[in-house]
Design goal:
By secondary structure, the protein is of the alpha/beta class. It is built from 9 helices and 8 strands.
């Protein structure tokens, strides 16, 4: 598969604030409508990164598995390939999404830990779809190694998180999966981050967000070149599984998209931008719908299904 031709979006349904809420209140009609709006506004759209919820699976395994299959069917009806996100380690101070916390993997830190606690989830979701052609890749975990303090202040935390990820990676491959398994690394980790997750990534997944108030364009472009160079060194495909920083102002966001996608395209890096549709999760809506954090508003499609002003810029790339 040539990942340079991926032109897609991350997708979070509009009706919930957390992964747990989205999957417990699974609404196939809404998902079908919103992905249909995506195809209408963005005809080149060919893939989605669909975030799952281990927490919701724990509440009702059978129902979650059925809903996951329904989501794959809906995506397939629009000729969209799917990258499911199995676990999430991104947490937000304004409106947290939920997912995996330190309690789940740092040995001895919490009583929630149980032997093989994630195995039923992986077996039913990954194992049962090991040869499913609708899945083009499995994102093992979104943005691990994200800490609020220097990792050396928490002894063994990096090693413990890596050991957990490695175990999950090996478990996925024990099902003889056809689609590659990867780990979506946080943009701020740079070269060291992509080197860290390379042994447990069949393809390399980066989150290259250009922020107008962050590093300069020259520094951003250099970081992309470093990613490309490393991917060539290890002989693995490279894909931006999150990109295009947000803004409350529509015109400002359009310019961020224009610059970001232009730089990715120059380097033949495909993308799954963040985020297709208005949602109640963090930073995916206008301010009247709830609190908004540092990224501002990341959506491309408004709550009423209309295109956010200027965001058809996506179609130029």
């Amino acid at each position: 598969m040539d990942y340079a031709y991926i032109r897609g979006f991350n997708y979070q349904p509009s009706y919930g604030t957390t992964g747990l809420e989205l999957w417990l209140n699974f609404n196939a009609d809404t998902i079908k409508q919103e992905l249909g709006q995506g195809k209408k506004h963005f005809p080149k759209m060919n893939a989605i990164r669909l975030w799952l919820s281990w927490n919701a699976f724990k509440r009702n395994e059978k129902r979650f598995a059925e809903n996951f299959d329904t989501a794959l069917e809906i995506a397939d009806s629009y000729n969209l390939l799917v990258m499911p996100v199995l676990f999430n380690r991104w947490h937000d101070k304004v409106l947290d999404y939920g997912g995996i916390y330190i309690d789940h993997f740092l040995p001895g830190v919490s009583w929630v830990q149980q032997e093989d606690m994630f195995c039923p989830y992986l077996e039913m979701i990954v194992g049962d779809h090991a040869h499913d052609q609708r899945v083009f890749a499995w994102d093992l975990c979104n943005e691990p190694f994200s800490y609020g303090c220097p990792p050396e202040e928490i002894p063994n935390i990096v090693a413990a998180e890596y050991d957990w990820l490695e175990e999950m990676y090996e478990r996925c491959h024990s099902y003889d999966v056809e689609a590659p398994v990867t780990v979506g690394i946080h943009a701020g980790h740079g070269r060291s981050g992509i080197e860290q997750i390379e042994p447990i990534s069949d393809i390399l997944s980066i989150h290259p967000y250009y922020k107008p108030n962050g590093p300069t364009k020259a520094e951003y472009e250099k970081s992309l070149d470093v990613y490309v160079e490393f991917a060539e060194q290890v002989g693995k495909p490279l894909l931006a599984t999150e990109t295009c920083w947000g803004a409350l102002d529509d015109a400002e966001r359009v310019e961020i998209i224009r610059y970001t996608l232009g730089e990715l395209k120059k380097r033949n890096i495909g993308w799954l931008v963040y985020l297709l549709h208005h949602s109640l999760i963090a930073d995916a809506h206008r301010q009247e719908y709830g609190p908004v954090g540092d990224p501002g508003n990341l959506m491309f499609i408004e709550a009423d299904g209309s295109l956010r002003p200027g965001h058809d810029i996506f179609n130029q790339f």
